[in-house]
Amino acid sequence: MEGNQRMNRDKLRLGNMLRVSVVAGALVGALLVPGAASASGLHPTSRDHDGDGLTNGFEKYQSHTNPWKADSNHNGLRDSKENPDHDGLTNKQEQTVGTNPLKGDSDHDGLKDGQEDSDHDGLDNHHEFQAGTNPEDADTDNDGVDDGQEDSDHDGVENETEQEDGTNAGDADTDDDGVKDGEDGDANGDGHDDQCEIVNGNDSPLCEDDSSEPGEDAAQG
Asked: Which residues make Cβ contacts (< 8 Å) with residue 119, sequence separation at least 6?
């Protein structure tokens, strides 16, 4: 009987050793082969498997795009550059500011996410990305001047004024006419005087058409 008990103890000990070996082997394998977890579908949510600029977690739980395909709908546009909710922000930009890429107005306050001014610096989120500033930091370069008062493209016009004019705060010559926005009477190329539009709003019928010769409107009246 004593021999049988010893044999049973030996079997139990051997079984425990085998189980420990299997677990240890699996752990070592996972460490040596980083792709093993991804291959099984257990990819970390902070990684970007398809290299499209969106994390796996954001694609799976927010934009509902394919984390394994950079262009989920095969339209020639990377998932990060898509704007499915038409709010003025791309998926990647929504990921940055923490808004919902499938809801144009994430916080239901009546403003589209691109029109929100998250850091209260005078620039909405859309124009912050356009100017290359941080929509969550009122003074991106920490120089004591709010991003709205900066002149990111060095065209002689402050970012906030470019936002009001409808010009690009990241492009010194928005309409590509060879004249910097700060020296261009119609920098956004819409046929209306910029200063008039600042007062009366973009495309206001009150603003003189730049294409008209001086006195032409009066003659027609």
From this structure: 128, 134, 135, 136, 137, 138, 147
